[in-house]
Amino acid sequence: MAAQEIVENTPDARPSLRNEPVQARSAARLSALLDAAAQIVDEIGYERLTTAMVAERAGASIGTVYRYFPDRIAVLQALAARNLERVLEKTTNEILDPKNETWASALKAASAVLIDAHRTEAGFSGLRFGDVLDLRPASLDRTFNSIVSDRIVDALVERFGFTDSPEFRFRFETAVEISDALATRAFARDPQGDEAFLQVSRDVVTQLLAQDLGTP
User: Tens digit of pLDDT for each residue in 95-151?
Assistant: First the structure.
């Protein structure tokens, strides 16, 4: 999936790019701009990021930045979109992997993807999917956490044959919100994550979902 796309089959979540890159060179240039933005978010936070900083860090002209992004918010939207895209692909692959024989082990593996993103993905911990700043495009009436939740439920239903229902999806989305809040707290002052908060996150989610999925 191309870096500028947010989620397959979620076209309304696409950020507003002035020009969609259609050649490999343009796609690489866009990726470099987002990499630069991610580094800046890691260093000084998303609040202080400017398009000029992104251009300087990427070794590009300010005109190149504005070729793709109308303003700094669009840069952050695209970065949040890339975070979402990467995490969704990895978590879905983990849940569908036959090595995870139970729903609990599949979710533990999916949780490890998110934790690893906090630890290793530049800009992820400070921005995550952009919900922290409500960076959703105006056309999108769902949070990115809601999109994550639905994609994981889709994978669980496919992998383990669970009965799908609006009630199940609501409880799962609640679990995702709890997990996200605890993970944010875990990484607030520790770049590796406070393991006590991370363990509580795993325990709470498992206990909450056991009501629908049964004892793992």
Answer: 999 999 999 999 999 999 999 999 998 888 888 766 656 655 555 667 778 888 999
Asked if 45 and 125 count as a contact pair (C-beta separation under 8 A), the reply is no
- Name, in order, each residue with C-beta under 8 angstroms of 48's C-beta and a sequence gap of 6 or more: none
Beta carbons of 155 and 89 less than 8 angstroms apart: no
DSSP 69: -
Give the pair of three-digit tokens for residue 76: 């952050």
Nearest alpha carbon to residue 78 among 9, 32, 14: 14
**Backbone φ and ψ of 179, nearest 5°:** -60, -40
Q: Could you give the 3-state DSSP secondary structure of residue 191?
A: coil
Contact 119, 191 (CB under 8 A): yes
- Pairwise CA distance, residues 78 & 127, whole Å: 11
Residues 6+ apart with CB under 8 A from 78: 4, 15, 17, 30, 34, 68, 69
DSSP for 86-114, written as a single string: HHHHHHHHHHH-TT--SHHHHHHHHHHHH
Are the CB atoms for 114 and 201 separated by under 8 Å?
no
Indicate the pTM of the whole model: 0.77
Q: What is the DSSP string of 37-96?
A: HHHHHHHH-GGG--HHHHHHHHT--HHHHHHH-SSHHHHHHHHHHHHHHHHHHHHHHHHH
